[in-house]
């Protein structure tokens, strides 16, 4: 077994990469990428979004999000417009075609769930909760590494 198979980071990386590849196969007939799909899911569920709020929800920076939204707009799935009194705010909305995709892509979550090997919704919820906890812990480590670094240098005692 390769040494990387013993690393949590590699297991997460491999699971993420393989999951994204599975989405790629499922979304290919619609010429959609996984980030485009999650943008659509957010718009289907939460309604119109400012580009800023959509970027925050998807954890994408504007340099990634803006070109993606431009491609989605060119494909006829979304529109972008300045609708608020603040001209800097751009609102992203679904077009009728973007709304119709919700029905066409309804099988995707079921396929991912079936392919995940998780036996039921409770197991899926537990995994999602654990991954959210891990994400928050890694954000904390990213933003405040000093305490963890200091603790990892502390002498270890054995019982």
Automatic annotation (TrEMBL):
<dbReference type="InterPro" id="IPR036388">
    <property type="entry name" value="WH-like_DNA-bd_sf"/>
</dbReference>
<feature type="domain" description="HTH marR-type">
    <location>
        <begin position="5"/>
        <end position="136"/>
    </location>
</feature>
<dbReference type="InterPro" id="IPR055166">
    <property type="entry name" value="Transc_reg_Sar_Rot_HTH"/>
</dbReference>
<keyword id="KW-0238">DNA-binding</keyword>
<dbReference type="Pfam" id="PF22381">
    <property type="entry name" value="Staph_reg_Sar_Rot"/>
</dbReference>
<keyword id="KW-0963">Cytoplasm</keyword>
<dbReference type="InterPro" id="IPR036390">
    <property type="entry name" value="WH_DNA-bd_sf"/>
</dbReference>
<keyword id="KW-0804">Transcription</keyword>
<dbReference type="InterPro" id="IPR000835">
    <property type="entry name" value="HTH_MarR-typ"/>
</dbReference>
<keyword id="KW-0805">Transcription regulation</keyword>
<dbReference type="InterPro" id="IPR039422">
    <property type="entry name" value="MarR/SlyA-like"/>
</dbReference>
<protein>
    <submittedName>
        <fullName>MarR family winged helix-turn-helix transcriptional regulator</fullName>
    </submittedName>
</protein>
